[in-house]
Amino acid sequence: MDTKFIGRHQPGGIFSIVDRELFPTGSIWWVGSAETAASDAAGYGVNPDAPFATWVYAVSQAAAGDTIFLMPGHAETIGITAAAAITLAAAGLRTIGLGGRTRKPQILIDGFADTYVSITAADVVLENITFKAGHADIAKAINVAAAGVEIRRCNFEENIATENFLIAILTTAAADDLLVEDCFITTVDASATEGIEIIGACNRVIVRNNYIKGPYSVSAISVTTVACLDMQILNNRIINTLAGDDLAGCIDIVAASTGIMAYNNCYMEDDTDILTAIDAANLGRVENYVANEYGQEANISATRSA
User: Fold this and answer.
1) H-run or E-run covering 88
2) What is the third-level CATH fold of 5-300?
3) What is the pLDDT of residues 149-162, one digit of tens each?
């Protein structure tokens, strides 16, 4: 009888039954700082009863196609000056946080303004993790320099009001097929420039279903430098609390980019014209709304098509 499930036993680990559509092709690693038996040592990490203590160590042990589970309540601080605090260089490596909204694993990027999480291998996945800024004006939380990366259900937050990310997610031109979805990005710091900055030419990028709030001096979602093709910017909720005139502070796409921009709901404290809150370049526009007064309903962000 065929079912959706496959049994698996990893040497030293537990026997597991998993959905074959999500079946990990490589090893499974467990990380849990809250577990009393946790240790960054040989013989640990393959069983949730004796996990690794840190994500950094787990990444050093993982290979292409492996899956790392961060256990509920895991908390870790990372930071190296003028360098990546952690580099995800194994293709297809997945890091999945376990736990609900109040038990989501937390990674504090601390100590330096120029440290970050670096993704240099294709098809890396980050899911259900909270990244917190532990220093003032950290240049970026995550730098994506490879294709096919997926960042899902992650939070990007301040540890305290004076510690912030200038940019939550930044790419290089190598980040084709990037997916950012269901993320929560927020800051109160006036130094913030973008929630997400995509540096072209990154094609087939999808940014959807995200909540982004902050006083962004450039734009909450920004595409810069070179045109990106076949993008999808969909169903995002954006609040830019930076007051200014004629600022494309919600979504700003570099000229000649193509794709679709649809069903984004935005608030921009621009007291001149809501039509300037979004610059869609050559993306097709469908039902994008902008408000610029808290007491007023949003209006369509461009002239309706004839």
Assistant:
1) strand 84-88
2) Pectate Lyase C-like (2.160.20)
3) 999 999 999 988 88
